[in-house]
Amino acid sequence: MQELEGLGSSYGQLKEVQEQFYQNVATLVSIKTAAQNTEMLVPLTNTVMVPAKVNDNGRVLVDIGTGYYVSRTVADADSYYVRKIKYLQEQLNALGQLIQNRRQNLMVVQQMLQPEQQ
Questions:
Q1: What domain count does the chain have?
Q2: Nearest to 1 by CA among 102, 116, 112, 108
Q3: Spatial separation of the C-alpha atoms in residues 76 and 58, rounded to whole Å
Q4: Are 86 and 25 in contact (CB under 8 A)?
Q5: If both were cysteines, with which of 38, 44, 106, 114 could 34 make a disulfide (CB 3.0 to 4.6 Å apart)?
Q6: pLDDT digit string, tens, across residues 62-73
Q7: What is the bridge-based pairing of β-strands 59-65 and 49-54?
């Protein structure tokens, strides 16, 4: 039971990260189409946005994890996020299958124990 809760929590966290990557791709589209010196709000998280001015719409900083940022072209950043989204989807599919298998195993065990309890 606790294992299922932990797996479900992990699934939710992976889904949140994937949603953030989708939002990053949408932000890249906005940056790519923005004129230079355009002011816009850039999302740092799902709920925090900061004002920014587009100086060079050809390059962006990409968070590659644990507080490290790298400068990339918009096309490279988009490719990076698309790869991450695809990888996370594969992990979500595998984790979803694992959760489903564990639930089925739990149901079988509960059914086996139920007659003994009566």
A1: 1
A2: 102
A3: 10
A4: no
A5: 38
A6: 989 888 999 999
A7: unpaired
Angle, to 10 degrees, between the axis of helix 2-33 and the axis of helix 74-117?
160
Instruction: Quote the CA–CA distance of 60 and 29 in Å, as a whole number.
Output: 12
Single pTM value for the model: 0.80
31-90 tens-digit pLDDT: 888 888 888 888 777 788 899 888 887 889 898 988 899 999 999 999 999 999 999 999
Range of the domain at 83: 2-117
Looking at residue 92, which CATH number applies to its domain? Answer: 1.10.287.370
Q: Are 51 and 39 in contact (CB under 8 A)?
A: yes
